[in-house]
Write a structure and sequence with these properties.
This protein has 8 helices and 8 strands. The protein is α/β, with parallel strands linked by helices. β1 (7-12), α1 (18-34) and β2 (40-44) form a beta-alpha-beta unit. α1 packs across α8 (225-244) and α4 (98-115) crosses α5. The longest helix has 20 residues, at 225-244. This is Sirohydrochlorin chelatase.
């Protein structure tokens, strides 16, 4: 008897900004292009419909996995999502993951190409959180990106996180982070937004990067191939555990993304 994957519900934050919604809407299309046989639906936590619970209810009992298009385990993931899931399962947030590092590297290299020069330092700029542990993911991703750039370029490229909403005294703003890097002798500083889509945060980063004399600012992560593959990797990891019912079977690829090994589970 044929086995079919559950429906993938891509759950985005939602935004009042039309350009953010357009970019968010392009990501499910990228996912469908990679896996045409998979049913992919969209849902939102804020501002737009359907909400996650509405998207789950519309499936009328068809198995579903909600993949949160979130970069960390903040309020939407830890508080909102469990209350909205119903019979569906939820995959882990998108960060950290090697494919996220790949997507950030791609955006950085786009910006460097426009600037005509490689960066000798990178500021990974996030909205930030005041919740305990809310910024840990950004700090981890900054370390992963720095290691990836070293492997790629053969020389150290420091990647420092900067937060628009600092939660601790040691957290740095974009301007302060750029100042620290210049004090270390770095002169070609690139700003890479740790954001899913364009909006007021990315506008602020553009203006602040220009004001502080940074070399270039990359585009937000958006709808690119690596992000679509990342969503599928999270979906597949959760689907493996859901269908097998045994964490030891998590390494078996049933609806896998070619070349991606991800043993992260679901809740």
């Amino acid at each position: 008897m044929a086995s079919f994957p559950p429906v993938l519900i891509a759950a985005a934050h939602g935004s009042r900004e039309a350009r953010a919604q357009r970019e968010t809407g392009r990501l499910p299309a990228e996912i469908r292009a990679l896996r045409p046989a998979l049913r992919v639906e969209s849902a939102f936590f804020d501002f737009h419909g359907p909400t996650v619970d509405e998207a789950v209810a519309a499936l009328r009992g068809t198995p579903a996995i909600v993949v949160p298009l979130l970069l960390g385990a903040g309020f939407h993931f830890t508080v909102d999502l469990p209350a909205l899931l119903g019979p569906a399962r939820a995959a882990k947030p998108l960060a950290p993951h090697p494919l996220l590092t790949e997507a950030l590297t791609y955006r950085l290299e786009e910006a460097e190409a426009r600037a005509g020069s490689p960066a000798d330092a990178v500021v990974l700029a996030a909205a930030g959180s005041r919740r305990p542990g809310g910024n840990d993911g950004c700090y981890a991703v900054a370390r992963h990106l720095s290691r990836a750039l070293y492997v790629r370029r053969g020389e150290p490229v420091p990647v420092r996180p900067a937060l628009l909403c600092a939660g601790r005294e040691e957290d740095r703003s974009l301007a302060r982070t750029a100042q620290d890097l210049r004090a270390e002798g770095r002169t070609r500083i690139a700003v890479v937004p740790y954001l899913m889509a364009p909006g007021r945060f990315s506008d602020y980063l553009d203006a602040e990067a220009e004001r502080t004399g940074c070399m270039c600012t990359a585009r937000p992560l958006g709808a690119q191939a690596a992000m679509a593959r990342l969503v599928l990797a999270r979906f597949d990891a959760c689907a493996r555990l859901t269908t097998a019912g045994n964490p030891a079977d998590a390494g078996v690829v049933r609806w896998g993304v070619p070349g991606v090994s991800d043993k992260a589970g679901c809740r």
